[in-house]
Amino acid sequence: MSRVKFNVNTEYAYLNNFKILQNCFAKHQIDRLVPVESLVKCKMQDNLEFLQWTKRFWDQYFPGGEYDAVARRKGAGAPPAAAAPAPITSSRTSGAGAAARRGTTPTTAPARSVGVVSAGGGAASAALKQELNTMKETVTGLERERDFYFSKLRDIELLLQQACDDNPELEKEENGLIKQVQTILYSTEVCSTEGQMSNIG
After folding, report:
1. Distance from C-alpha of 109 to C-alpha of 86, rounded to nearest angstrom
2. Can you tell me the mean pLDDT for 8-36?
3. Residue 81 per-residue DSSP state
4. What contacts 6, CB < 8 A, 6 or more positions away?
5. Of 150, 183, 186, 164, whose CA–CA distance to 199 is shortest?
6. Cα–Cα distance for residue pair 35/37, rounded to 1 Å
7. From CA 38, how far away is CA 16, in angstroms rounded?
8. I need a surface site. Which of 82, 176, 182, 189 has the fewest CB within 10 A?
9. d(CA 201, CA 159)
């Protein structure tokens, strides 16, 4: 970690960091190639796919427990202390242990628990546990639905890319169907998407 340069913004530094990552993968016999050329170009789709793979790998192999990223990199690249975000405090968070079980990245914040649950007992505790289980099921269903629709959109995107590769003239048509679908796929605001849907219909 000491060789990684944090907070870099030059292509040379990106290349150096990705080479360190690739060497680390080789050292630990991880068969994933780091697509350095694609990642250095800073295209969102390439970086997103690699980040999603990294997250899946972390969730699959992280043994659990505390992980302090700032201490691990010896404070290099950490934001100033005044700019550090405040820890999230809500009734939905129950500390690092629960975060590790859910498959999310644990934090080093002390575990915060709901007073009734930690007091241990009674109908209130059982009701909170039931509510928690219901919310977990809801989140799982929503994640499945999100992944389903994301895969559909990705399939559409691949079909459009294939069509444009086969016939580059399709992409040059200003009011063509492919251009309109690409505009919808790559729009970032909900209101602009709704306006374009009404223009197509």
Report:
1. 10
2. 81
3. G
4. 73, 76, 77, 78
5. 183
6. 6
7. 14
8. 82
9. 21
